[in-house]
């Protein structure tokens, strides 16, 4: 039987060409007036998911 991808994980994570998972940084949704612009700029963009979580993500997203 064909597996299904976890729809919540597929919306939050992308896989690179080398097989690593990318995620967005947390902390840039609300209460932005209390954070300085350097911090907000640092929080923008994507970062690589930690290797301890990559095995779990590989099971959640078998076809990505």
Structure description:
The chain is α+β, with helices and mostly antiparallel strands. It has one domain (7-60): Factor Xa Inhibitor (Irregular), CATH 4.10.410.60. The chain contains 3 helices and 3 strands; from the N terminus they run αββαβα. The protein has a 3-stranded antiparallel β-sheet. The mean pLDDT is 96.
Secondary-structure blueprint:
Elements: H1 7-12, E1 14-15, E2 21-24, H2 37-43, E3 46-48, H3 51-60
Antiparallel strand pairs: 1-2, 2-3
Largest sheet: number of strands, sense, barrel closure: 3 strands, antiparallel
- Please estimate the helix content: 25-40%
Number of helices: 3
Instruction: Say what the CATH topology is.
Output: Factor Xa Inhibitor
Give the tags.
64 residues; alpha+beta; 3 helices; elongated; three-stranded antiparallel beta sheet; 36% helix; 14% strand; Factor Xa Inhibitor
